[in-house]
Amino acid sequence: MEQLVTSDFKLGIIAGGQLGKMLVLAASNWDVKTFILDTDGHCPASTCCTQFVKGNQLDYNAVIRFGGMVDMITFEIENVNIEALQKLKAEGKKIFPDPDALAIIQDKGLQKEFYQNNNIPSPQFFLFKNKAEIIVASEAGTITFPFVQKLRKGGYDGKGVAIIHSLNELKNLLEGASLVEKLVEIQTEISVIVARNRKGEIKCFPVVEMEFNEANLVEKLICPSVLEEKILQQANEIATQLISSFNLCGILAVEMFVDKNNVVWVNEIAPRPHNSGHHTIESVITSQYEQLLRAIFNFPLGSTQLKMPSVMINLLGEPNYEGPVKYEGLTDCLGIEGVKIHLYGKKITKPYRKMGHVTILANSIEEAKKKAGIVKQKLKVKSW
Ligand code: ADP
User: Fold this and answer.
1) Residue 224 near ligand 1, beta carbon < 6 Å
2) What are phi and psi of 305, to 5 degrees?
3) Is 155 close to ligand 1, i.e. is its CB under 6 Å away?
4) Overall pTM surpassing 0.90 (yes/no)
């Protein structure tokens, strides 16, 4: 175990976005050498990793070549060439989480079948090959309105999801292999990040509540959740059951809905660091990044106890600005106690592009929310 840290051990991380960057920073605390595979030489992780490797994570040869350069592989994105990971695994490369679990999670249809086969509560669903099949099924009444259509592959941040209320809205269906599921009457969207190491030790991070904006990006994360203890417990049990059923080593973000009757449903999962764990850097004893490293290096998992309540807001590119980035309000916001600003280092801003995030720590959620409101007003991502 010890040879993994302060040594020549090389950890390969597939993709170097903000999640990759924050993982690199955590690894650097243990003097672990980090290699990043990304197409963009200016990606957020490029400035702090040990070695940047240019290549597309969807390209079989690029992933194989990258595998040959490192001792262990993990990823910060689901959209990775699975055949390459499976080949590397067959050749004995250590890859965590396991590519076989990733293959299921990459495909929302297989994900839903996995829930069904493992008694995980998730909205009832049907699989379709294309848009035409969904139209036939809805006209025949086999599926009833309102429903949610999700493309099986490649969706993110709400892209690849269509909510259909009536026959008139069938024109909004997306083309491609997809699943259709019941529209849940959502009371609150929550997330639990759960970690499991190779010995099978499991720990959940505190439940967070998520609020989304009009672009379907997380607007606000609130931790801890103020939902009833019974619901929180159920969410933790579901997350624990999921990571055990996958036999997964690493971390798993489990996004869930709590419906109007307080029933908890799994929406989707991601086997990697997640947006809904940004606040863990400051507000929990162990961050999600350190926990991922502990899990895949088979160290004991760290404490997930909350240090302080927090609210996290994303710093998104302002709608009317595109070009070289300019931040406004940094000095004012840094003057507010408990405000922790993270800038990802993206050079170009675009409307709603995730440029950074801010975690606001306070003695109570109410106080953190108040300060978050001020930060939101003052801190703006514009361009020159
Ligand atoms: P993505 O992978 O793009 O984030 P999600 O599956 O999380 O897509 O869906 C995006 C959003 O759509 C969710 O956060 C939720 O607000 C809404 N949504 C998804 N599925 C349902 C559902 N079955 N019922 C109600 N709302 C849903």
Assistant:
1) no
2) -70, 140
3) yes
4) yes
Residue of 314, 306, 292 whose CA lies nearest to 361:
306
Peptide bond just before 97 cis, omega within 30 deg: yes
- Whether 374 is in the pocket of ligand 1, judged by its Cβ within 6 Å, is no
150 lines ligand 1 (CB under 6 A): yes
d(CA 83, CA 67) in angstroms, rounded, equals 13
CA distance 84 to 99: 9
Please give the Cα distance from 382 to 336 (Å, whole number). 21
Span 161-207, pLDDT tens digits: 999 999 999 999 999 999 999 999 999 999 999 999 999 999 999 99
Mutate to test the pocket of ligand 1, among 149, 267, 276, 314 (most ligand atoms within 8 A of CB): 267
Q: What is the CATH code of the structural domain delimited by 10-95?
A: 3.40.50.20
pLDDT at 8 over 90: no
Q: What pLDDT shows up at residue 102?
A: 98
Whether residue 180 contacts residue 148, with contact meaning beta carbons closer than 8 Å, is answered with: yes
> Which CATH code is given to the segment(s) 124-182?
3.30.1490.20
Kindly give the distance from the C-alpha atom of residue 161 to the centroid of ligand 1, in angstroms, as a whole number. 7
Q: Per-residue pLDDT tens for 65-120?
A: 999 999 999 999 999 999 999 999 999 999 999 999 999 999 999 999 999 999 99
For ligand 1, whether the C-beta of 157 sits within 6 Å is yes
For residue 267, how far is its CA from the centre of ligand 1 (angstroms)?
Answer: 7
Domain ranges, ordered by start, for the chain: 10-95, 124-182, 186-383
Confidence at residue 54, expressed as pLDDT on a 0 to 100 scale: 98
Spacing, Cα 46 to ligand 1 middle (Å): 31
Domain 186-383 falls in which CATH fold?
D-amino Acid Aminotransferase; Chain A, domain 1 (3.30.470)
Q: What is the DSSP letter of 129?
A: S
* pLDDT tens-digit readout, 200-255: 999 999 999 999 887 778 889 999 999 999 999 999 999 999 999 999 999 999 99
Encoded amino acid at 120, one letter: I
Protein residue whose Cα sits closest to atom 10 of ligand 1: 158
